[in-house]
Amino acid sequence: MAWTVDWRVTIDGNDVSNNMRAYLMDITVSDKDGAASDTCSLKFDDTGGQLLLPEPGAAVVVYLDGAQVFEGVVDSTPWELTRGGGRTLGVNAKGDDHRGKTKERQAWHMDEATLKDVMETAAKKAGLQGVVMDPELGAIKRDYWALDNVSFNHFGADMAARFGATFKIRGKRAVFVKRGAGTTGTGDAMPTITASIPGNVISVSVDPAQGKRRYKKSTVRYFDRDSATFKSESVDIDLDDVDVTNTSRELAANADDAKRHAAGRKSDSERDSGTGSVEMDLSPEAQAEGTLVLTGARPGIDGTYRIVSVTHKASRSSGATTTLEIKQPQGDAGKTAEPPPTCRCLRPRRANKAVPEARLLGR
Questions:
Q1: What is the 3-state composition of the chain as percent helix, strand, coil, each rounded to the nearest 5?
Q2: What's the whole-number average pLDDT of the chain?
Q3: What CATH number does the domain located at 101-178 have?
Q4: What values do phi and psi take at 252, rounded to 5?
Q5: What's the pTM value of the predicted model, to 2 decimals?
Q6: Omega before 54 cis (within 30°)?
Q7: Confidence band of 358 (pLDDT split at 50, 70, 90)
Q8: Closest CA to 115 of 188, 181, 185, 31
Q9: What is the pLDDT of residue 337?
Q10: Per-residue pLDDT averaged across 321-340, rounded?
Q11: If DSSP codes are grouped into helix, strand and coil, which group holds residue 56?
């Protein structure tokens, strides 16, 4: 069966699409926010055992419908045999080279430096070319930074959790951007994806008003050396249906650090206030931390969401789809809409004075 989606694969800079075309069966690419590595899986028909295994660590770039959806390195090559499915060979790649030095522990410090200076130095010690970094986050300055026997992966994830950022490694560079802001490391807007019902949507499951991670205020404590007392900084969260304060157990270095940490926890609370998934026709431009606009569902569900993971699936036998995991409802999403007068299903039933009480209670 012929492919219905245009795809292209390069290995170590060489376009090998024509060599793969007769054997490639499925392509699966996953892009997640946070420190989780991007992944790519290529599945081949290996009936005759004629395929040459790629070298571990070889650079892989995958395109779908002309858009680059993955960049990374070969991580593993699993082979399988099943009675119904025959012999298949997989080529699994990851955005972060797990054989590289990003997992190697580092022990050093830097005085009077910005976060960008520290991240760039740590990245190069880990064998990367550098860091694509949000300008505002990169400008954060401290009188002392230290990597106390931790890996670059660990340090990046720790700084991302503290400052409300997303950190990950793609190819030879790390990315460090504001979480939930919908912008790239250079400040440009991430792509906006529109999911329309009817239209390009296959299925939707959305819960836009989860209560567990909802808070009204984020508070972080610090020790003020001048007054020799503990103080705190707080940031209000734009959620009106709760009155609960989220207080961090960690102490910040100073007042400025406490404000930034509280702002990061605010973005986490706003992000986790709703969740869902959307399966739709292939949208290769979709990226984690981008924006999804859902239309045609219903009031309270339609609106804007933050994309937290993207999975593209392309198959020689069944076409191509994109599945989005979404959070952080915005706009009208998650807000109670006034139902039409004819709607009574979710409203409290009003007692009819003309009917005896026993009848209303079902007796």
A1: 15, 45, 40
A2: 84
A3: 3.55.50.30
A4: -85, 165
A5: 0.78
A6: no
A7: very low
A8: 185
A9: 56
A10: 78
A11: coil
Q: What is the mean pLDDT of residues 164-187?
A: 77
**Judging by DSSP bridges, how do beta strands 86-94 and 79-82 pair with one another?**
antiparallel
H helix or E strand, kind and range, residue 105: strand 105-114
Q: What is the 3-state secondary structure (H, E, C) of 197-253?
A: CCCCEEEEEEECCCCCCCCCEEEEEEEECCCCEEEEEEEECCCCCCCCEEEEEEEEC
> In this predicted model, what pLDDT tens digit does every residue of 15-71 receive, in sequence order?
999 999 999 999 999 998 776 788 999 999 998 888 888 888 899 999 999 999 999
CATH class of 7-94: mainly beta
On whether the CB atoms of residues 164 and 137 are closer than 8 A, the answer is no
Paired with 23 in beta bridges are none
**Domain limits, the chain:** 7-94, 101-178, 192-210+274-330, 217-272
Query: What is the rounded CA–CA span in Å between residue 115 and residue 165?
Result: 12
The length of the chain in residues reads: 363
Q: What is the separation of C-alpha 112 from the centre of its chain, rounded to a whole number of angstroms?
A: 32
Identify whether the C-beta of residue 287 lies closer than 8 Å to the C-beta of residue 264. Answer: no
Side-chain-facing half-sphere of 131: CA atoms under 13 Å:
26
Position 328 pLDDT exceeds 70: yes
Q: At what angle do helices 152-163 and 115-125 cross, to 10 degrees?
A: 160
| Structure-block tokens of residue 24 | 């490639």
Distance CA 324, CA 313 (A): 11
Q: Mark out the alpha helices in the chain (DSSP H runs).
A: 17-20, 115-125, 135-138, 152-163, 255-271, 357-360
The average pLDDT across 255-261 equals 81
How far is CA 268 from each of CA 186, 233, 261, rounded to the nearest angstrom?
22, 17, 11
pLDDT band at 188 (very low <50, low <70, confident <90, very high): low
Q: Output phi, psi for 51, to 5 deg.
A: -85, 140
Locate 301 and state its tokens: 């569900």
- Asked whether the beta carbons of 247 and 219 are under 8 A apart, the reply is yes
For the record, the structure tokens of 53 come out as 């295994």
Contact 269, 302 (CB under 8 A): no
Q: Name the architecture of domain 192-210+274-330.
A: Beta Barrel (2.40)
